[in-house]
Amino acid sequence: MSKVRKTLNEVGKLLKTALAKELEDQGHRASASGSIIDSFKHKITDTSVTITTDKAHANVLQTGIPKGKKVDKERIKDWVRQKGFATNETEVKQIAYLVARKMKLEGVPTNESMTHSKNGRRIGFIDQVLKENEDKITKMIMDAFAFDIEVMFNKLPSEV
After folding, report:
1. Do 60 and 75 contact (CB within 8 A), yes or no?
2. CB 141, CB 11: distance < 8 Å
3. φ, ψ for residue 43, nearest 5 deg
4. Cα 47–51–52 angle (5° rounding)?
5. At what angle do helices 3-26 and 125-155 cross, to 10 degrees?
6. For 95-125, what is each residue's pLDDT tens digit?
7. To 5 degrees, how large is the angle CA 156–CA 158–CA 160?
8. pTM for the whole structure
9. Please, are residues 54 and 39 in contact by the beta-carbon 8 Å criterion?
10. How far apart are CA 107 and CA 65, in angstroms?
């Protein structure tokens, strides 16, 4: 395995850890459907690393939802059921209506949700992690490429 490939694997691990920490600091640890923090996976090729999650709400945690935008009430009902906030379907509908109304009035993140944040952020977790780690990741990858190139040159015949 090339140094670049090993380094890309290290970058994947670094990003997963950094994404998890940023989300935790933003107050997103608790999750009804399993925490997004525990859902990150990474895949490497010879030239890239890709971080994925199977959690559909990752985009909302990155970009938020603008005030006035209609939200998916069925997904909110599912969330209410998973959280155990209601004892029957009438309560599920009532709670989902109130949550959807609040989200439409304030957008996401809601004003009150900021109390869960340790770092003053509730959205932008991907941008924040990339910003904080860009220089380190760039150096890691450049050093790995330099190492692999040097190894290739050393394998060339001494006379060209």
Report:
1. no
2. yes
3. -130, 135
4. 135
5. 170
6. 999 999 999 999 999 989 999 999 999 999 9
7. 80
8. 0.85
9. yes
10. 5
